[in-house]
Write a structure and sequence with these properties.
The complex is a heterodimer of chains A (299) and B (484). With 299 residues, chain A is an alpha+beta fold. Chain A has two domains: 7-154 and 279-291, Uridine Diphospho-n-acetylenolpyruvylglucosamine Reductase, domain 3; 158-268, Alpha-Beta Plaits. Chain A contains eleven helices and 14 strands. In chain A, the strands form three sheets. A seven-stranded antiparallel β-sheet of chain A has the order 11-8-10-9-13-14-12, with helices on both faces. The mean pLDDT of chain A is 95. Chain B is an alpha+beta fold. Chain B has four domains: 5-91, Uridine Diphospho-n-acetylenolpyruvylglucosamine Reductase, domain 2 (2-Layer Sandwich); 98-215, Uridine Diphospho-n-acetylenolpyruvylglucosamine Reductase, domain 3; 218-318, Alpha-Beta Plaits (2-Layer Sandwich), CATH 3.30.70.3450; 334-438, Alpha-Beta Plaits. Helix content of chain B is 34%, strand content 19%. Chain B has helices spanning 5-15, 24-27, 51-64, 116-124, 142-148, 155-158, 192-196, 230-242, 255-265, 285-301, 313-324, 326-329, 349-363, 391-407, 432-445, 460-463, 474-477, and strands at 20-21, 44-46, 68-71, 88-91, 98-102, 107-110, 128-129, 165-171, 177-181, 205-212, 214-215, 219-227, 249-254, 275-283, 306-309, 336-339, 342-343, 367-372, 377-384. In chain B, a hairpin with a 5-residue loop joins strand 8 (165-171) and strand 9. Classes of the chains: A alpha+beta (299), B alpha+beta (484). At the A-B interface, helix 1, strand 1, strand 4, strand 5 and helix 6 of A face strand 9, helix 7, helix 8, helix 10 and helix 15 of B.
């Protein structure tokens, strides 16, 4: 599997495929495994710019030396490019969002080899169209993601986990979300458990944990339960989206699932995909035809 | 261009004659937005009341190839709502209903003409708020916020409009209606919602928005620190961020702005200060207390000669009043001013501020600085006197400040948008290829170029044939050897 190790190589490989009318599927016919450098980490700005082939674990290991992290924790250890292309997130989604919420800018290589940048590396910027968000969830069908700039967060000084065993998860979730607690993660490991992560200074985390226990009970657990959540999410075959207010109805229908109640997303053990409206599919197709008229990236 | 009588009659039929404005006197009301230097009188203004009516207008425009521009409250500062001569302005002022408050889902569904602050008002009683808070929040509309991806003082912690919109109904420039997202997050496929938010009304007209509202924090602490110099205040900002503290806002004002604010609203800022920092912390009480003590320690270490916390809601409001009235207060010290909206990486703030001071001296015009220091978003106010013929000079100085921001690896605009004002400056931040790809995306939505034409992307007609000097894009600079 040919791997490119520079923007120029990526551009040339795609321009050649484009000229020859060949398909070039990202991840199969061309990978960014060789594009794996951290180009810049401005600790004082809480931003970094990396090549898309770097693995999340490698990035976070480097950032942790400066007590910072990219606040995304999906199952497995995807490359940054995959993280964006598949819009992956984990339990931290509750507070920190999905890749689209943390990406500041991208450099893309289009199917015809055109290299284009959008966004920037500052946390606030509204100049130009947001191609960085556009490629989030694009599954490699719009452009090759070559470089990404991210907003980072400080590593918390302390983190503690509360597990609430319950047969009424919706009530526990509602109480927590109605409170003024600010958990970093809040998962329902359905059936039977609600899991909450508090991060911050040791004293503030202690206070949050005490308030939460007074509110919904439960007992402290070690961080292993988040591994379980990620493991089950990674093993799930499908994903169901729902109005957050309808959590009870959704749980009543599901035999088992990992549920992110504030986002309205459940990872389920059977095939399930979004039923995107036809009009959205048509619009997406129009964008694809403009960016990749010859279908170089087509599945 | 002149619209046909049949076209006008068709829209009168669809919307009711009283919602189609053709009187020249009334049309002039719509000739500009907050960027008053750019004006064009539209041929027609329509005030639709529903998605279907917007669709009828857009379909007719598409069929007759008539350009159209959507408009909210007209408070934008970049000319994003400047009409196209001979075109139609679609005012969304009548679509101002809050359609649904669903606090179980923490969502509010609104029409685009709803004022920003009215969303918070609708949920405040239940202990929730809508986080993006642009200075114009009393009047600016959610539709306009969506177009500009508006921020505000508190976006440092809470994010921008794009982080708070979970669903949109969009009328495409050919009249087709698309539903993007909904109450649940993370729909499959490319993030089209994220592209439409901040597209400055060039990809279609948004007619319904689903917003995320946030639970009000347990504790809020507003702190004020006075420094001798902006350098010292800048060092304190860096220190706060480096300590791992994420305030909801960090605002800075320099000497000139402090003086103007004192004259206007007397917020009681420290006398003789060369800079003040306004820092707001919110969240769980234990964390806020701890962070407040840490912020005080850092500020004093960086040379703050005065430090105080707002004792109650009234004194908090007064501290903010000084900040929020800063632009208007400039009227006390100058006849005219131009607001710039550049961004720099926050670690480069002190050096860019020194550069602005140099430029100010070199151009012989005063510059007041008031800005969102936490995220590096500068709002230098270039003071001038139009009657003394200083307008061109002021413009030049504002451009030079923008160059200084871009040289530091920043951006052309942090929240005011590109619009007409900065379309011709885009080549200073983006390469020809970047802009060409922007053009391709726009064509996918609007192949006929009818939807808010002349905004965001520079055109030869608008800017002349010679684009400004291209600077290497911030992302390219990092690996500059690889630039093709």
């Amino acid at each position: 599997m040919p791997s490119v190790s520079s923007l120029r190589e990526a551009s040339e490989a795609l321009a050649a495929a484009h000229a020859d009318g060949r398909r070039c599927r990202i991840g199969d016919d061309l990978t960014t495994a060789g594009l794996d450098r951290i180009l810049e980490h401005e600790a004082g700005d809480l931003t970094c710019t990396v090549e898309a082939g770097i693995r999340l674990s490698a990035l976070n290991a480097a950032l942790s030396r400066h007590s910072q992290r990219l606040s995304l924790d999906p199952p497995g250890d995807p490359t940054v490019g995959t993280l964006l292309a598949e819009n992956l997130s984990g339990p931290l989604r509750h507070r920190f969002g999905a890749p689209r919420d943390l990406v500041l800018g991208v450099t893309l290589v289009l199917a015809d080899g055109t290299i284009a940048s959008a966004g920037g590396k500052v946390v606030k910027n509204v100049a130009g169209y947001d191609l960085a968000r556009l490629v989030c969830g694009s599954l490699g069908r719009l452009a090759l993601i070559a470089r990404v700039s991210f907003r980072l967060h400080p590593l918390p000084k302390a983190s503690r986990t509360l597990v609430v065993e319950t047969d009424d998860a919706p009530a526990v979730v509602a109480a927590l979300l109605r409170s003024q607690l600010q958990p970093s993660a809040l998962d329902v490991l359905h059936p039977g458990r609600v899991v909450v992560l508090f991060e911050g200074s040791p004293r503030a985390v202690e206070a949050q944990l005490a308030t939460a226990r007074a509110l919904v009970g439960g007992s402290e657990a070690d961080a292993e339960v988040w591994e379980e959540s990620r493991r089950r999410q990674g093993a799930a075959r499908g994903r169901v989206r729902f109005e957050p207010g309808r959590l009870a109805d959704v749980l009543a229908e599901l035999p088992e699932a990992v549920v992110r109640p504030a986002a309205g997303v459940a990872y389920v053990p059977y095939d399930a995909a979004d039923d995107l409206p036809e009009s959205v599919r048509r619009l997406t197709e129009r964008i694809r035809r403009e960016l990749d008229p010859k279908g170089v990236f087509a599945a | 261009m002149s619209l046909t009588a049949a076209f006008v009659a068709e829209l009168q039929e669809a919307l009711g004659a009283e919602h189609v404005i053709t009187e020249p006197e009334q049309l002039r009301v719509y000739e500009c937005d907050g960027l008053t230097g750019h004006r064009a009188v539209p041929e027609l203004v329509v005030l639709p009341h529903s998605t279907e009516e917007v669709q009828a207008v857009v379909r007719a425009c598409h069929r007759e190839r008539v350009p159209f521009v959507a408009r909210g409250a007209g408070t934008g500062l970049s000319g994003g709502a400047t009409p196209v001569a001979g075109g139609v302005v679609v005012s969304l002022a009548r679509m101002n209903r809050i359609l649904e408050v669903d606090l179980e889902s923490r969502r509010v569904v609104v029409e685009p003409g709803v004022a920003n602050l009215d969303v918070t008002r609708a949920v405040a009683g239940e202990g929730f708020f809508y986080a993006p808070d642009p200075s114009s929040q009393q009047v600016c509309t959610i539709g306009g916020n969506v177009a500009e991806n508006s921020g505000g003082a508190h976006c440092l912690k809470y994010g921008f409009t794009v982080h708070h919109v979970t669903g949109l109904t969009l009328v495409l420039p050919d009249g087709e209606v698309v539903e993007l997202g909904g109450k649940a997050l993370d729909p499959d496929g490319p993030d089209l919602l994220g592209v439409v938010v901040g597209s400055e009304g060039t990809l279609g007209i948004v007619t319904r928005i689903t917003l995320r509202v946030v639970r009000s924090p347990e504790a809020v602490r507003t702190l004020l620190a006075g420094f001798e110099t902006t350098d010292a205040a800048g060092a304190a900002v860096s220190g706060i961020i480096a300590a791992g503290i994420l305030p909801s806002a960090i605002e800075m004002m320099d000497r000139l702005t402090i003086e103007a604010a004192e004259l206007a609203v007397a917020p009681g800022y420290p006398e003789g200060a060369g800079a003040v920092l306004l820092v707001e912390l919110d969240g769980v009480a234990a964390q806020v207390e701890e962070d407040a003590a840490e912020v005080e320690r850092i500020c004093r270490e960086c040379g703050a000669f005065e430090f105080r916390a707002a004792a109650d809601e009234a004194s908090r409001a007064l501290l903010w009043k000084g900040r929020k009235s800063a632009f208007a207060a400039m009227g006390r010290v100058a006849t005219d001013y131009y607001v710039q909206d550049g961004v720099v990486p926050r670690t480069r703030l002190p050096e860019v501020l020194r550069r602005i001071e140099e430029l100010s001296r070199a151009h012989g015009l005063r510059v007041g600085n008031v800005f969102h220091a936490g995220d590096g978003n500068l709002h230098p106010l270039v003071l001038y006197d139009a009657e003394k013929g200083e307008t061109a000079q002021a413009r030049e100085l504002a451009e030079a400040i923008l160059d200084a921001c871009l040289d530091a690896g920043g951006s052309l605009t942090g929240e005011h948008g590109v619009g007409m004002d900065k379309a011709c400056s885009m080549p200073r931040m983006f390469s020809e290829r970047d802009l060409e790809v922007f053009g391709r995306l726009r064509r996918a939505f609007d192949p006929d170029g009818l939807c808010n034409p002349g905004k965001v992307i520079p055109t030869p007609r608008l800017c002349g044939e010679v684009p400004g000097p291209y600077r290497i894009h911030a992302l390219e600079r990092i690996g500059v050897a690889e630039r093709l």
